[in-house]
Amino acid sequence: MAPTATLPGQSSQRTTGNTATRYKAGVLKYKEMGYWVPDYEPKPTDVVAVFRITPQEGVDPDEAAAAVAGESSTATWTVVWTDRLTAAENYRAKAFRVDPVPGTPGQWFAYIAYDLDLFEEGSIANLTASIIGNVFSFKPLKAARLEDMQFPVAYVKTFKGPPTGIVVERERLDKYGRPLLGATIKPKLGLSGKNYGRVVYEALLGGLDFTKDDENINSQPFMHWRDRFSFCMEAVQKAQAASGEVKGHYLNITAGTMEEMYRRGEFAKQLGSCIVMVDLIVGWTAIQSISEWSRQNDMILHLHRAGHGTYTRQKNHGVSFRVIAKWLRLAGVDHMHAGTAVGKLEGDPLTVQGYYNVCRDSFTKKDLPRGIFFDQDWAGLRKVMPVASGGIHAGQMHQLIDLFGDDVVLQFGGGTIGHPMGVQAGATANRVALEAMVLARNEGRDILNEGPGILMQAAKSCRPLEAALMTWKDVTFNYASTDTSDFVPTASVA
Amino acid sequence: MRITQGTFSFLPDLTDEQIGRQVDYALQQGWAVSIEYTDDPHPRNTYWEMWGMPMFDLKDAAGLLTELRECRKTHADCYIKVNAFDSTRGFETMRLSFIAHRPPEEARYRLRREESEGRLLRYTLERA
Protein backbone atom coordinates (compact mmCIF):
# COMPACT_ATOMS: atom_id res chain seq x y z
CA MET A 1 0.00 0.00 0.00
CA ALA A 2 1.40 3.37 -0.98
CA PRO A 3 2.16 5.74 1.90
CA THR A 4 -0.45 8.46 2.22
CA ALA A 5 0.12 12.07 3.14
CA THR A 6 -0.47 12.86 6.79
CA LEU A 7 -1.47 16.14 8.38
CA PRO A 8 0.66 17.60 11.18
CA GLY A 9 -0.03 15.78 14.42
CA GLN A 10 -1.56 12.87 12.61
CA SER A 11 0.01 9.52 12.05
CA SER A 12 -1.88 6.84 10.25
CA GLN A 13 -3.07 3.90 12.34
CA ARG A 14 -0.68 4.75 15.11
CA THR A 15 -2.01 2.38 17.78
CA THR A 16 -4.11 -0.02 15.84
CA GLY A 17 -1.49 -2.15 14.17
CA ASN A 18 -2.69 -4.00 11.19
CA THR A 19 -5.72 -2.32 9.59
CA ALA A 20 -7.44 -5.54 8.56
CA THR A 21 -7.24 -6.85 12.13
CA ARG A 22 -8.45 -3.54 13.54
CA TYR A 23 -11.64 -3.62 11.47
CA LYS A 24 -12.54 -7.29 11.96
CA ALA A 25 -16.17 -7.44 13.10
CA GLY A 26 -16.54 -7.77 16.88
CA VAL A 27 -15.78 -5.89 20.07
CA LEU A 28 -12.39 -4.33 20.82
CA LYS A 29 -11.16 -2.46 23.83
CA TYR A 30 -11.39 1.32 23.30
CA LYS A 31 -7.63 1.48 23.88
CA GLU A 32 -7.15 -0.84 20.92
CA MET A 33 -9.48 1.19 18.70
CA GLY A 34 -7.16 4.23 18.69
CA TYR A 35 -8.62 6.32 21.51
CA TRP A 36 -5.60 5.95 23.81
CA VAL A 37 -2.54 7.69 22.39
CA PRO A 38 -0.12 8.28 25.28
CA ASP A 39 2.55 9.95 23.13
CA TYR A 40 0.05 12.36 21.49
CA GLU A 41 0.97 16.05 21.62
CA PRO A 42 -2.20 18.15 21.29
CA LYS A 43 -2.09 20.42 18.25
CA PRO A 44 -2.52 24.17 18.79
CA THR A 45 -5.88 23.83 17.01
CA ASP A 46 -7.20 20.97 19.19
CA VAL A 47 -9.92 21.39 21.78
CA VAL A 48 -8.65 19.77 24.99
CA ALA A 49 -10.77 18.54 27.91
CA VAL A 50 -9.88 17.11 31.29
CA PHE A 51 -12.36 14.75 32.94
CA ARG A 52 -12.28 13.39 36.47
CA ILE A 53 -13.17 9.73 36.04
CA THR A 54 -14.07 7.04 38.58
CA PRO A 55 -13.82 3.71 36.74
CA GLN A 56 -15.79 0.66 37.90
CA GLU A 57 -13.83 -1.98 39.85
CA GLY A 58 -11.48 -3.80 37.50
CA VAL A 59 -11.56 -1.21 34.69
CA ASP A 60 -8.08 0.19 34.25
CA PRO A 61 -7.85 4.00 34.05
CA ASP A 62 -6.26 4.08 30.57
CA GLU A 63 -9.12 2.03 29.16
CA ALA A 64 -11.67 4.19 30.98
CA ALA A 65 -10.04 7.34 29.56
CA ALA A 66 -10.03 5.81 26.08
CA ALA A 67 -13.72 4.97 26.49
CA VAL A 68 -14.51 8.60 27.40
CA ALA A 69 -12.57 9.76 24.33
CA GLY A 70 -14.41 7.22 22.19
CA GLU A 71 -17.90 7.92 23.47
CA SER A 72 -17.41 11.69 23.19
CA SER A 73 -16.27 11.38 19.57
CA THR A 74 -16.69 8.64 16.98
CA ALA A 75 -16.98 5.34 18.82
CA THR A 76 -19.79 2.95 19.28
CA TRP A 77 -19.53 -0.25 21.32
CA THR A 78 -18.45 -2.44 18.43
CA VAL A 79 -16.22 -2.22 15.39
CA VAL A 80 -17.93 -0.73 12.33
CA TRP A 81 -16.50 -1.10 8.84
CA THR A 82 -17.97 2.26 7.80
CA ASP A 83 -15.15 3.96 9.75
CA ARG A 84 -13.04 3.00 6.76
CA LEU A 85 -14.98 5.42 4.54
CA THR A 86 -13.57 8.28 6.65
CA ALA A 87 -10.22 9.66 7.75
CA ALA A 88 -11.18 8.03 11.05
CA GLU A 89 -7.91 8.83 12.80
CA ASN A 90 -8.76 12.51 12.47
CA TYR A 91 -12.20 12.24 14.03
CA ARG A 92 -11.23 10.03 16.96
CA ALA A 93 -10.70 11.94 20.18
CA LYS A 94 -7.43 10.92 21.76
CA ALA A 95 -6.92 10.29 25.47
CA PHE A 96 -3.26 11.14 25.97
CA ARG A 97 -2.69 11.47 29.69
CA VAL A 98 -4.12 10.01 32.90
CA ASP A 99 -3.06 11.31 36.34
CA PRO A 100 -4.26 10.05 39.72
CA VAL A 101 -6.31 12.69 41.59
CA PRO A 102 -4.15 13.82 44.54
CA GLY A 103 -5.40 12.30 47.78
CA THR A 104 -8.42 10.58 46.21
CA PRO A 105 -7.88 6.87 45.45
CA GLY A 106 -9.96 5.48 42.61
CA GLN A 107 -10.22 8.79 40.69
CA TRP A 108 -8.13 9.97 37.75
CA PHE A 109 -7.82 13.09 35.64
CA ALA A 110 -8.07 12.02 32.00
CA TYR A 111 -6.87 14.48 29.33
CA ILE A 112 -8.51 14.18 25.93
CA ALA A 113 -7.81 16.05 22.69
CA TYR A 114 -10.41 16.69 19.97
CA ASP A 115 -9.69 17.82 16.44
CA LEU A 116 -11.18 21.22 15.56
CA ASP A 117 -13.22 19.66 12.74
CA LEU A 118 -15.35 17.81 15.28
CA PHE A 119 -17.16 21.04 16.11
CA GLU A 120 -19.51 23.41 14.34
CA GLU A 121 -18.46 27.03 14.53
CA GLY A 122 -20.27 29.29 17.00
CA SER A 123 -22.52 26.62 18.53
CA ILE A 124 -22.34 25.77 22.24
CA ALA A 125 -25.16 23.29 21.60
CA ASN A 126 -22.94 21.35 19.22
CA LEU A 127 -19.91 21.56 21.52
CA THR A 128 -21.83 20.28 24.52
CA ALA A 129 -23.65 17.57 22.57
CA SER A 130 -20.20 16.21 21.71
CA ILE A 131 -18.34 16.64 24.95
CA ILE A 132 -21.06 15.82 27.48
CA GLY A 133 -23.65 14.20 25.23
CA ASN A 134 -23.12 10.53 26.03
CA VAL A 135 -20.27 9.75 28.34
CA PHE A 136 -21.83 10.62 31.67
CA SER A 137 -24.17 7.63 31.56
CA PHE A 138 -21.51 5.22 30.39
CA LYS A 139 -21.62 2.00 32.48
CA PRO A 140 -17.88 1.24 32.81
CA LEU A 141 -17.56 4.52 34.73
CA LYS A 142 -19.07 4.92 38.18
CA ALA A 143 -18.86 8.66 37.74
CA ALA A 144 -17.36 11.33 35.50
CA ARG A 145 -16.91 15.06 35.79
CA LEU A 146 -15.80 17.54 33.17
CA GLU A 147 -13.25 19.62 35.10
CA ASP A 148 -11.91 22.05 32.52
CA MET A 149 -11.54 22.74 28.82
CA GLN A 150 -9.10 24.58 26.59
CA PHE A 151 -10.26 26.16 23.36
CA PRO A 152 -7.96 27.11 20.49
CA VAL A 153 -8.09 30.72 19.33
CA ALA A 154 -9.44 29.52 15.99
CA TYR A 155 -12.51 28.15 17.77
CA VAL A 156 -12.90 31.09 20.21
CA LYS A 157 -13.03 33.40 17.19
CA THR A 158 -16.18 31.68 15.90
CA PHE A 159 -18.10 33.16 18.86
CA LYS A 160 -19.14 36.79 19.34
CA GLY A 161 -19.04 36.58 23.13
CA PRO A 162 -20.56 39.11 25.54
CA PRO A 163 -22.70 41.72 23.76
CA THR A 164 -21.48 44.52 26.06
CA GLY A 165 -18.63 43.33 28.30
CA ILE A 166 -17.18 44.92 31.41
CA VAL A 167 -15.45 47.85 29.74
CA VAL A 168 -18.41 49.03 27.69
CA GLU A 169 -20.88 48.36 30.49
CA ARG A 170 -18.92 50.71 32.76
CA GLU A 171 -18.72 53.32 30.01
CA ARG A 172 -22.48 53.15 29.46
CA LEU A 173 -23.20 53.36 33.18
CA ASP A 174 -20.43 55.93 33.81
CA LYS A 175 -19.34 54.01 36.92
CA TYR A 176 -15.66 53.31 37.54
CA GLY A 177 -13.27 52.30 40.26
CA ARG A 178 -15.56 50.29 42.49
CA PRO A 179 -17.71 47.16 42.44
CA LEU A 180 -21.29 47.75 41.32
CA LEU A 181 -24.05 47.21 43.85
CA GLY A 182 -27.26 45.29 43.39
CA ALA A 183 -30.10 43.64 45.25
CA THR A 184 -32.66 41.02 44.41
CA ILE A 185 -36.20 42.12 45.22
CA LYS A 186 -37.70 40.15 48.10
CA PRO A 187 -40.01 38.42 48.76
CA LYS A 188 -39.44 36.91 45.37
CA LEU A 189 -43.00 35.66 45.05
CA GLY A 190 -46.30 37.35 45.82
CA LEU A 191 -45.66 41.10 45.45
CA SER A 192 -47.92 42.97 43.03
CA GLY A 193 -46.27 45.02 40.31
CA LYS A 194 -46.89 48.26 42.18
CA ASN A 195 -45.50 47.00 45.48
CA TYR A 196 -42.55 45.37 43.75
CA GLY A 197 -41.65 48.65 42.01
CA ARG A 198 -41.70 50.41 45.38
CA VAL A 199 -38.83 48.21 46.58
CA VAL A 200 -36.93 48.91 43.34
CA TYR A 201 -37.34 52.66 43.77
CA GLU A 202 -36.27 52.71 47.42
CA ALA A 203 -33.23 50.52 46.80
CA LEU A 204 -32.00 52.54 43.80
CA LEU A 205 -32.67 55.88 45.46
CA GLY A 206 -30.74 54.68 48.52
CA GLY A 207 -27.64 54.14 46.40
CA LEU A 208 -27.72 50.81 44.57
CA ASP A 209 -26.78 50.69 40.90
CA PHE A 210 -29.04 47.77 40.06
CA THR A 211 -31.97 45.82 41.37
CA LYS A 212 -32.88 42.39 40.13
CA ASP A 213 -35.76 40.05 39.41
CA ASP A 214 -35.17 36.66 40.91
CA GLU A 215 -34.80 33.56 38.76
CA ASN A 216 -38.38 32.40 39.16
CA ILE A 217 -40.07 35.78 38.60
CA ASN A 218 -41.64 35.49 35.16
CA SER A 219 -45.37 36.16 34.72
CA GLN A 220 -47.33 34.59 37.53
CA PRO A 221 -50.93 35.24 38.63
CA PHE A 222 -49.88 37.74 41.33
CA MET A 223 -47.81 39.86 38.88
CA HIS A 224 -47.96 39.70 35.13
CA TRP A 225 -44.78 40.61 33.31
CA ARG A 226 -46.01 43.82 31.64
CA ASP A 227 -47.11 45.23 35.01
CA ARG A 228 -43.76 44.39 36.54
CA PHE A 229 -41.86 45.96 33.65
CA SER A 230 -43.92 49.19 33.72
CA PHE A 231 -43.73 49.73 37.47
CA CYS A 232 -40.04 48.79 37.68
CA MET A 233 -39.08 51.20 34.90
CA GLU A 234 -41.06 54.03 36.50
CA ALA A 235 -38.97 53.31 39.63
CA VAL A 236 -35.68 53.18 37.70
CA GLN A 237 -36.38 56.41 35.81
CA LYS A 238 -37.42 58.27 38.96
CA ALA A 239 -34.29 57.15 40.81
CA GLN A 240 -32.13 58.25 37.87
CA ALA A 241 -33.70 61.70 37.91
CA ALA A 242 -33.19 62.07 41.65
CA SER A 243 -29.56 60.91 41.75
CA GLY A 244 -28.24 61.95 38.35
CA GLU A 245 -26.84 58.43 38.06
CA VAL A 246 -27.58 55.70 35.52
CA LYS A 247 -29.56 52.93 37.23
CA GLY A 248 -31.02 49.64 36.10
CA HIS A 249 -33.30 46.79 37.00
CA TYR A 250 -32.58 43.35 35.54
CA LEU A 251 -35.93 42.56 33.95
CA ASN A 252 -36.17 38.78 33.76
CA ILE A 253 -37.38 37.98 30.25
CA THR A 254 -37.16 34.20 30.69
CA ALA A 255 -40.29 32.66 29.13
CA GLY A 256 -41.62 29.46 27.62
CA THR A 257 -40.69 30.27 24.03
CA MET A 258 -38.13 32.40 22.23
CA GLU A 259 -40.95 34.37 20.63
CA GLU A 260 -42.19 35.39 24.08
CA MET A 261 -38.66 36.21 25.27
CA TYR A 262 -38.15 38.54 22.33
CA ARG A 263 -41.55 40.14 23.00
CA ARG A 264 -40.57 40.84 26.62
CA GLY A 265 -37.17 42.12 25.56
CA GLU A 266 -38.76 44.56 23.11
CA PHE A 267 -41.05 45.94 25.81
CA ALA A 268 -38.09 46.37 28.20
CA LYS A 269 -36.31 48.30 25.45
CA GLN A 270 -39.37 50.46 24.77
CA LEU A 271 -39.46 51.49 28.44
CA GLY A 272 -35.79 52.49 28.36
CA SER A 273 -34.25 49.61 30.32
CA CYS A 274 -30.48 49.25 29.92
CA ILE A 275 -30.43 45.59 30.99
CA VAL A 276 -32.42 42.36 30.74
CA MET A 277 -31.83 38.94 32.26
CA VAL A 278 -32.38 35.28 31.47
CA ASP A 279 -31.91 32.13 33.50
CA LEU A 280 -29.36 29.46 32.63
CA ILE A 281 -32.17 26.91 32.35
CA VAL A 282 -33.41 28.49 29.08
CA GLY A 283 -30.64 26.51 27.41
CA TRP A 284 -27.58 27.22 25.31
CA THR A 285 -29.29 28.01 22.04
CA ALA A 286 -31.75 30.39 23.72
CA ILE A 287 -28.85 32.12 25.48
CA GLN A 288 -26.98 32.57 22.20
CA SER A 289 -30.12 33.89 20.50
CA ILE A 290 -30.93 36.41 23.21
CA SER A 291 -27.26 37.42 23.27
CA GLU A 292 -27.51 38.27 19.58
CA TRP A 293 -30.72 40.22 20.26
CA SER A 294 -29.00 42.10 23.12
CA ARG A 295 -26.13 42.98 20.79
CA GLN A 296 -28.56 44.43 18.25
CA ASN A 297 -30.47 46.40 20.89
CA ASP A 298 -27.70 47.91 23.07
CA MET A 299 -28.83 45.79 26.01
CA ILE A 300 -26.67 44.45 28.83
CA LEU A 301 -27.45 40.74 29.32
CA HIS A 302 -27.51 39.40 32.87
CA LEU A 303 -27.44 35.65 33.41
CA HIS A 304 -28.73 33.98 36.56
CA ARG A 305 -27.18 30.50 36.84
CA ALA A 306 -30.44 28.86 37.95
CA GLY A 307 -30.13 25.10 38.16
CA HIS A 308 -26.35 24.81 37.85
CA GLY A 309 -26.00 23.25 41.32
CA THR A 310 -27.62 20.07 40.01
CA TYR A 311 -24.49 19.29 38.00
CA THR A 312 -21.70 21.54 39.27
CA ARG A 313 -21.60 20.93 42.99
CA GLN A 314 -20.57 17.32 43.54
CA LYS A 315 -16.93 16.75 42.75
CA ASN A 316 -17.17 13.23 41.41
CA HIS A 317 -19.89 13.71 38.78
CA GLY A 318 -21.15 16.47 36.51
CA VAL A 319 -19.58 19.56 34.96
CA SER A 320 -17.48 22.05 36.91
CA PHE A 321 -18.80 25.61 36.96
CA ARG A 322 -15.48 26.78 35.50
CA VAL A 323 -16.45 24.96 32.30
CA ILE A 324 -19.97 26.41 32.40
CA ALA A 325 -18.38 29.86 32.85
CA LYS A 326 -16.19 29.34 29.78
CA TRP A 327 -19.18 28.24 27.71
CA LEU A 328 -21.19 31.24 28.93
CA ARG A 329 -18.42 33.66 27.98
CA LEU A 330 -18.28 32.16 24.50
CA ALA A 331 -22.09 32.07 24.22
CA GLY A 332 -22.15 35.75 25.17
CA VAL A 333 -23.53 37.00 28.49
CA ASP A 334 -22.46 40.23 30.22
CA HIS A 335 -23.11 39.27 33.85
CA MET A 336 -22.99 35.84 35.42
CA HIS A 337 -23.45 34.72 38.99
CA ALA A 338 -20.15 33.14 40.01
CA GLY A 339 -20.30 32.74 43.79
CA THR A 340 -19.45 34.72 46.91
CA ALA A 341 -17.12 32.44 48.90
CA VAL A 342 -18.35 34.15 52.08
CA GLY A 343 -22.13 33.93 51.58
CA LYS A 344 -24.80 31.27 51.94
CA LEU A 345 -24.14 29.31 48.75
CA GLU A 346 -21.51 26.70 47.85
CA GLY A 347 -17.97 27.66 46.88
CA ASP A 348 -14.52 27.81 48.50
CA PRO A 349 -12.51 31.01 47.95
CA LEU A 350 -9.83 29.71 45.58
CA THR A 351 -12.25 27.76 43.42
CA VAL A 352 -14.56 30.78 43.18
CA GLN A 353 -11.62 33.04 42.25
CA GLY A 354 -10.92 30.59 39.43
CA TYR A 355 -14.43 31.24 38.03
CA TYR A 356 -13.89 35.00 38.32
CA ASN A 357 -10.64 34.74 36.39
CA VAL A 358 -12.39 32.84 33.60
CA CYS A 359 -14.90 35.71 33.37
CA ARG A 360 -12.46 38.62 33.50
CA ASP A 361 -9.05 37.63 32.10
CA SER A 362 -7.75 38.52 28.66
CA PHE A 363 -5.53 35.46 29.01
CA THR A 364 -6.23 32.93 31.77
CA LYS A 365 -3.10 31.23 33.09
CA LYS A 366 -3.00 27.62 34.21
CA ASP A 367 -3.55 27.76 37.98
CA LEU A 368 -4.16 24.38 39.62
CA PRO A 369 -4.88 25.70 43.14
CA ARG A 370 -7.77 27.68 41.60
CA GLY A 371 -8.86 24.68 39.54
CA ILE A 372 -7.64 26.06 36.20
CA PHE A 373 -5.96 23.21 34.29
CA PHE A 374 -5.05 25.09 31.10
CA ASP A 375 -3.86 28.39 29.71
CA GLN A 376 -6.69 30.03 27.79
CA ASP A 377 -6.21 32.82 25.28
CA TRP A 378 -9.55 34.66 25.05
CA ALA A 379 -8.56 36.28 21.75
CA GLY A 380 -10.11 39.66 22.45
CA LEU A 381 -13.46 38.23 23.54
CA ARG A 382 -15.17 40.75 25.82
CA LYS A 383 -15.09 40.17 29.57
CA VAL A 384 -18.00 39.06 31.72
CA MET A 385 -18.87 40.89 34.94
CA PRO A 386 -19.15 38.27 37.69
CA VAL A 387 -21.95 38.65 40.22
CA ALA A 388 -21.59 37.77 43.91
CA SER A 389 -25.03 37.13 45.33
CA GLY A 390 -26.48 35.16 48.22
CA GLY A 391 -26.19 35.73 51.96
CA ILE A 392 -23.70 38.62 51.93
CA HIS A 393 -23.93 41.87 53.94
CA ALA A 394 -22.14 45.19 54.46
CA GLY A 395 -20.03 43.81 57.33
CA GLN A 396 -18.19 41.56 54.86
CA MET A 397 -17.24 44.41 52.50
CA HIS A 398 -13.49 44.17 53.19
CA GLN A 399 -13.46 40.41 52.54
CA LEU A 400 -15.46 40.77 49.32
CA ILE A 401 -13.26 43.53 47.90
CA ASP A 402 -10.11 41.67 48.92
CA LEU A 403 -11.32 38.46 47.23
CA PHE A 404 -12.84 39.90 44.07
CA GLY A 405 -11.48 43.39 43.36
CA ASP A 406 -13.50 46.05 41.51
CA ASP A 407 -15.00 44.27 38.51
CA VAL A 408 -17.88 42.49 40.20
CA VAL A 409 -21.52 43.19 41.07
CA LEU A 410 -22.04 42.71 44.81
CA GLN A 411 -25.66 41.86 45.45
CA PHE A 412 -27.06 42.32 48.90
CA GLY A 413 -30.73 41.25 48.72
CA GLY A 414 -31.62 40.47 52.32
CA GLY A 415 -28.75 42.77 53.32
CA THR A 416 -30.61 45.70 51.72
CA ILE A 417 -34.29 44.91 52.09
CA GLY A 418 -33.98 43.41 55.57
CA HIS A 419 -32.38 46.54 57.01
CA PRO A 420 -34.09 47.61 60.28
CA MET A 421 -34.48 51.23 59.07
CA GLY A 422 -35.93 50.34 55.68
CA VAL A 423 -34.88 49.56 52.13
CA GLN A 424 -33.40 52.97 51.32
CA ALA A 425 -31.29 52.91 54.47
CA GLY A 426 -30.15 49.38 53.65
CA ALA A 427 -28.97 50.50 50.23
CA THR A 428 -27.17 53.54 51.64
CA ALA A 429 -25.40 51.39 54.23
CA ASN A 430 -24.04 49.15 51.49
CA ARG A 431 -22.94 52.02 49.24
CA VAL A 432 -21.20 53.88 52.06
CA ALA A 433 -19.46 50.70 53.25
CA LEU A 434 -18.32 50.01 49.68
CA GLU A 435 -16.98 53.49 48.95
CA ALA A 436 -15.27 53.75 52.34
CA MET A 437 -13.51 50.44 51.77
CA VAL A 438 -12.38 51.28 48.23
CA LEU A 439 -11.09 54.66 49.43
CA ALA A 440 -9.12 52.97 52.22
CA ARG A 441 -7.72 50.27 49.93
CA ASN A 442 -6.53 52.89 47.43
CA GLU A 443 -4.85 54.76 50.27
CA GLY A 444 -2.77 51.63 50.86
CA ARG A 445 -4.46 50.36 54.00
CA ASP A 446 -4.57 46.63 54.80
CA ILE A 447 -8.34 46.24 54.45
CA LEU A 448 -8.46 42.55 55.27
CA ASN A 449 -7.15 43.24 58.77
CA GLU A 450 -8.37 46.81 59.28
CA GLY A 451 -11.73 46.26 57.54
CA PRO A 452 -14.00 46.11 60.59
CA GLY A 453 -12.38 49.30 61.95
CA ILE A 454 -12.77 51.09 58.61
CA LEU A 455 -16.47 50.17 58.57
CA MET A 456 -17.00 51.35 62.16
CA GLN A 457 -15.29 54.64 61.31
CA ALA A 458 -17.52 55.15 58.25
CA ALA A 459 -20.57 54.25 60.36
CA LYS A 460 -19.90 57.25 62.64
CA SER A 461 -21.27 59.56 59.95
CA CYS A 462 -23.79 57.05 58.55
CA ARG A 463 -26.50 55.77 60.88
CA PRO A 464 -27.80 53.18 58.38
CA LEU A 465 -24.36 51.57 58.18
CA GLU A 466 -24.09 51.47 61.94
CA ALA A 467 -27.47 49.73 62.15
CA ALA A 468 -26.48 47.23 59.45
CA LEU A 469 -23.26 46.34 61.22
CA MET A 470 -25.11 45.79 64.49
CA THR A 471 -27.86 43.70 62.91
CA TRP A 472 -25.69 41.28 60.96
CA LYS A 473 -22.43 41.31 62.91
CA ASP A 474 -22.51 37.62 63.77
CA VAL A 475 -23.87 36.20 60.51
CA THR A 476 -21.54 33.80 58.74
CA PHE A 477 -22.14 30.67 56.70
CA ASN A 478 -19.07 28.73 57.75
CA TYR A 479 -19.72 25.28 56.29
CA ALA A 480 -17.16 23.11 54.54
CA SER A 481 -17.40 23.40 50.76
CA THR A 482 -18.09 20.39 48.57
CA ASP A 483 -16.37 21.63 45.43
CA THR A 484 -12.83 22.37 46.61
CA SER A 485 -9.34 22.52 45.15
CA ASP A 486 -7.60 19.18 44.66
CA PHE A 487 -4.19 20.76 44.78
CA VAL A 488 -4.11 22.73 48.05
CA PRO A 489 -5.56 22.32 51.53
CA THR A 490 -8.96 24.03 51.58
CA ALA A 491 -9.17 27.40 53.30
CA SER A 492 -12.30 28.97 54.68
CA VAL A 493 -12.69 32.73 54.92
CA ALA A 494 -15.44 33.10 57.48
CA MET B 1 -30.45 66.33 46.08
CA ARG B 2 -26.82 65.36 45.75
CA ILE B 3 -25.62 64.14 42.35
CA THR B 4 -24.11 60.77 43.22
CA GLN B 5 -22.10 60.00 40.09
CA GLY B 6 -18.47 59.06 40.65
CA THR B 7 -16.61 56.61 42.83
CA PHE B 8 -16.94 58.37 46.19
CA SER B 9 -20.12 60.45 46.10
CA PHE B 10 -21.68 58.76 49.13
CA LEU B 11 -18.77 59.80 51.36
CA PRO B 12 -18.30 63.31 52.75
CA ASP B 13 -16.55 65.51 50.12
CA LEU B 14 -12.91 64.50 49.87
CA THR B 15 -10.25 66.89 51.18
CA ASP B 16 -7.36 67.81 48.89
CA GLU B 17 -5.18 65.52 50.99
CA GLN B 18 -7.55 62.61 50.32
CA ILE B 19 -7.74 63.50 46.63
CA GLY B 20 -3.94 63.48 46.54
CA ARG B 21 -3.80 59.97 47.98
CA GLN B 22 -6.23 58.68 45.34
CA VAL B 23 -4.11 60.31 42.62
CA ASP B 24 -0.97 58.69 44.08
CA TYR B 25 -2.75 55.33 43.92
CA ALA B 26 -3.67 55.91 40.28
CA LEU B 27 -0.10 56.88 39.41
CA GLN B 28 1.22 53.75 41.14
CA GLN B 29 -1.04 51.69 38.87
CA GLY B 30 0.41 53.43 35.83
CA TRP B 31 -2.81 55.28 35.01
CA ALA B 32 -2.96 58.79 33.53
CA VAL B 33 -5.01 61.29 35.53
CA SER B 34 -7.08 64.10 34.08
CA ILE B 35 -9.58 66.77 35.07
CA GLU B 36 -12.97 67.45 33.50
CA TYR B 37 -15.72 69.93 34.37
CA THR B 38 -19.33 70.62 33.42
CA ASP B 39 -22.38 72.62 34.40
CA ASP B 40 -24.62 69.83 33.09
CA PRO B 41 -24.06 66.55 34.96
CA HIS B 42 -26.92 64.80 33.12
CA PRO B 43 -26.22 61.06 33.49
CA ARG B 44 -25.87 60.71 29.74
CA ASN B 45 -23.61 63.72 29.31
CA THR B 46 -20.55 61.66 28.44
CA TYR B 47 -18.26 64.45 27.31
CA TRP B 48 -17.49 66.89 30.07
CA GLU B 49 -15.11 69.70 29.11
CA MET B 50 -11.44 68.72 29.38
CA TRP B 51 -9.27 70.86 31.64
CA GLY B 52 -6.18 70.25 29.55
CA MET B 53 -4.98 66.87 28.35
CA PRO B 54 -4.60 63.73 30.46
CA MET B 55 -1.36 64.09 32.46
CA PHE B 56 0.44 61.11 30.98
CA ASP B 57 3.84 61.84 32.45
CA LEU B 58 2.87 63.10 35.89
CA LYS B 59 5.21 61.97 38.70
CA ASP B 60 3.21 62.87 41.82
CA ALA B 61 -0.15 64.23 42.92
CA ALA B 62 1.02 67.81 43.43
CA GLY B 63 0.77 68.60 39.72
CA LEU B 64 -2.82 67.47 39.56
CA LEU B 65 -3.78 69.35 42.71
CA THR B 66 -2.35 72.57 41.29
CA GLU B 67 -4.46 72.16 38.16
CA LEU B 68 -7.51 71.22 40.22
CA ARG B 69 -7.22 74.44 42.25
CA GLU B 70 -6.94 76.46 39.03
CA CYS B 71 -9.97 74.72 37.59
CA ARG B 72 -11.98 75.34 40.75
CA LYS B 73 -11.12 79.05 40.62
CA THR B 74 -12.28 79.36 37.03
CA HIS B 75 -15.30 77.02 37.23
CA ALA B 76 -16.50 77.32 40.82
CA ASP B 77 -20.10 76.93 39.65
CA CYS B 78 -19.41 73.62 37.87
CA TYR B 79 -18.89 69.98 38.77
CA ILE B 80 -15.26 68.93 38.46
CA LYS B 81 -14.12 65.31 38.35
CA VAL B 82 -10.76 63.60 38.50
CA ASN B 83 -10.33 60.64 36.14
CA ALA B 84 -7.67 57.95 35.95
CA PHE B 85 -7.19 56.29 32.57
CA ASP B 86 -5.60 52.87 32.03
CA SER B 87 -4.14 52.25 28.58
CA THR B 88 -3.46 48.52 29.22
CA ARG B 89 -4.81 46.28 26.47
CA GLY B 90 -8.12 44.79 27.52
CA PHE B 91 -9.01 47.93 29.50
CA GLU B 92 -8.14 51.11 27.57
CA THR B 93 -10.73 52.89 29.68
CA MET B 94 -11.27 54.82 32.89
CA ARG B 95 -10.41 52.90 36.08
CA LEU B 96 -11.33 55.57 38.62
CA SER B 97 -13.46 58.69 38.33
CA PHE B 98 -14.66 60.80 41.22
CA ILE B 99 -16.14 64.24 41.81
CA ALA B 100 -13.61 66.65 43.32
CA HIS B 101 -15.68 69.83 43.33
CA ARG B 102 -19.39 70.64 43.42
CA PRO B 103 -21.17 73.93 42.70
CA PRO B 104 -22.74 75.82 45.61
CA GLU B 105 -26.14 74.62 44.43
CA GLU B 106 -26.53 71.07 43.12
CA ALA B 107 -28.07 70.49 39.68
CA ARG B 108 -31.53 68.97 39.75
CA TYR B 109 -33.27 66.88 37.13
CA ARG B 110 -36.95 66.24 36.68
CA LEU B 111 -38.56 63.21 35.05
CA ARG B 112 -40.82 64.11 32.14
CA ARG B 113 -43.43 61.48 31.30
CA GLU B 114 -44.97 61.46 27.87
CA GLU B 115 -48.11 59.35 27.74
CA SER B 116 -48.08 57.09 24.74
CA GLU B 117 -50.40 54.37 23.41
CA GLY B 118 -52.13 52.27 26.08
CA ARG B 119 -50.42 52.61 29.43
CA LEU B 120 -47.02 53.11 27.86
CA LEU B 121 -44.92 56.01 29.17
CA ARG B 122 -41.89 57.51 27.49
CA TYR B 123 -39.39 59.04 29.86
CA THR B 124 -37.00 61.96 29.51
CA LEU B 125 -34.81 63.69 32.09
CA GLU B 126 -34.79 67.45 31.94
CA ARG B 127 -33.11 70.10 34.04
CA ALA B 128 -35.45 71.20 36.87
Structure description:
The complex is a heterodimer of chains A (494) and B (128). By secondary structure, chain A is an alpha/beta fold. Chain A is built from 18 helices and 15 strands. The N and C termini of chain A lie far apart (68 Å). The model of chain A is unreliable at 1-16 (pLDDT under 50). Chain B is globular and about 60 Å long. The model of chain B has no long low-confidence stretch (mean pLDDT 97). Chain A binds chain B through residues 167, 170-171, 174-178, 207, 230, 233-234, 237-238, 240-246, 270-272, 362, 383, 406, 428, 431-432, 435-436, 438-439, 442-444, 458, 461, and chain B through 1-5, 7-12, 18, 21-22, 25, 41-44, 46, 83-84, 89-98, 107, 109-111, 119-123, 125.
Describe this protein with a few key phrases.
heterodimer, A: alpha/beta, eight-stranded parallel β-barrel, 15 strands, elongated, B: 128 residues, alpha+beta, two-stranded antiparallel ribbon, 2 helices, 6 strands, 21% helix, globular
Sum this structure up briefly.
The complex is a heterodimer of chains A (494) and B (128). By secondary structure, chain A is an alpha/beta fold.
